[in-house]
Amino acid sequence: MSASRDPWPVAASARLYGALLAAYPARFRCEFGAEMLQVFRDASRETYRRRGPFAVLRLWPRTLGDLARSAAAERFDKLKRPGRGRRRQWRRLRSHAILYGAYTTTSAHFPRMEASMGRRHTLKRAFVRLFRRHGGTGRPAVAGRSHLDRFTNRARHVLLLGQEEAHRLRRIYMGTEHLLLGLLREEGGVTAEVLASLGVALADARAEVERISGRGDRVVSGTVRLTPRAKRVIELAADEARLLDHRYISTDDLLLGLVREGDGIAARIITDRGVTLQRAREEVARALRERGAASADESS
Amino acid sequence: MSQIEPEVAALLPLTPAAFQILLALAGGERHGYGIMREIADGSGGKTRLGPGTLYRSIKQMLGAGLIEESGERPDPALDDERRRYYRLTAFGRRVARAEAERLAQLVDMARAKRLLGEPGAAPVPGGIA
């Protein structure tokens, strides 16, 4: 990455700005944080080039002002959202309060529970997870813009593979079943293993998809569009990523999105194998936990 | 004055930042830093948008349908990091035009009252608000 070749005033400045981005609400940060840091870094580099290292320092008063004003405005906007939004906020606050009360009483009465859990799975972290899930908004954010920009490379590949599957079956729309086939075809990801352990194999799934949704009669070329249900799966996947604090939407999130949508052909294929949707969730969670042993779980 | 569609009129007047961004994009697609540079250069360094204000405005304009994302690619003039490019939508262009007309109307009024010199005259010291 060319960022590593930056002179140290620029690199240090950028690192500090990156840390200060925490002032923004999580959703805004997730959407724009990387770009904002990039823009700041570009501006610092250019200032350094044109006017030397001290000029980089002089950028800060203005930057801090901009940061403080815009972060405050973003947070204020969140509170200002009328009607349903505000009710949601209050519900969240209330559930947070209840869960926080539960946590404090639990940890007071069962101090050994905290101690006996591993360093990774502290009681507090379990409750934080519960907060996020319980206090999260009921509906995923329908941004009206594509979530595709936040897909990992593997997830993008899954979409491509799904599109290939749709082409193969001469369908003009890519549905949840084609997404599932894409997930099955993507090798090397944890998701494929999870699906295998649930008894969903590529060959069977392909045959089933062809049986259920059929083959078209004319050859299709070009970009295949997503069905409304498949779009919903992607929105749910984005929400799952948000709930798990993932910066990018990965194949696991796509699988969770499929499972959570619950009604599409893909979900039906999964449940036809005697797998309940709950079990699918648990398997994904288990695989994530195991893989998360080395990941940046701590730094969140 | 030409009739303005109600959905365009509902967005006027634009915040200065929003209009600046629309102006910058009227010349073609830009990424975030490109927009920032164009605004700074265009105003002779007097108007500088910080990343927070810039992206807050971008977020609002994306929501209003004035601009849209136009893919990610590296900028050949900078390094090879991928950057998100933005461009005006047709609606955004109409809104920008409507706002420019509104401002032009104000400028005409200022000229009529002798606050401004004739077009092509030397700029008024202190700049135009």
User: How large a portion of the residues of chain B is in β-strands, by DSSP E?
Assistant: 5-15%
Total DSSP helices of chain A: 14
**CATH topology of chain B, which one?**
Arc Repressor Mutant, subunit A
Which CATH-level-2 architecture of the largest domain in chain A?
A: Orthogonal Bundle
> How many independent structural domains of chain B?
1
Lateral arrangement of strands in the main beta sheet of chain B: 1-3-2
Order of helices and strands of chain A: HHHHHHHEHHHEHHHH
Order of helices and strands of chain B: HHEHHEEH
Which ranges of chain B are low-confidence, i.e. pLDDT below 50, for 5 or more consecutive residues? Answer: none
Please provide the count of β strands of chain B.
3
Question: Care to describe what's here?
Answer:
The complex is a heterodimer of chains A (300) and B (129). Chain A has helices spanning 8-20, 26-51, 53-80, 84-109, 111-116, 123-135, 153-168, 176-185, 190-197, 202-213, 228-243, 251-261, 265-272, 277-291, and strands at residues 173-174, 225-226. Chain A has 300 residues and is mostly helical. Chain A has three domains: 2-80, no CATH class; 84-135, no CATH class; 148-291, Clp, N-terminal domain (Double Clp-N motif, Orthogonal Bundle), CATH 1.10.1780.10. A two-stranded parallel ribbon of chain A has the order 1-2. The longest helix of chain A is centred in the first third of the chain and has 28 residues, at 53-80. The relative contact order of chain B is 0.16. A three-stranded antiparallel beta sheet of chain B has the order 1-3-2. Chain B has one domain (8-112): Arc Repressor Mutant, subunit A (Orthogonal Bundle). Chain B has helices spanning 6-9, 16-26, 32-42, 51-64, 90-112, and strands at residues 30-31, 67-74, 82-88. Chain B contains five helices and three strands; from the N terminus they run ααβααββα. The chains are: A mainly alpha (300), B alpha+beta (129). The A-B interface holds A 1-3, 24, 28, 31-32, 35-40, 42-43, 62-63, 65-67, 69-71, 73-74, 144-146, 149 and B 32-33, 36, 48-56, 58-59, 62-63, 68-69, 72, 78-81, 83-84.
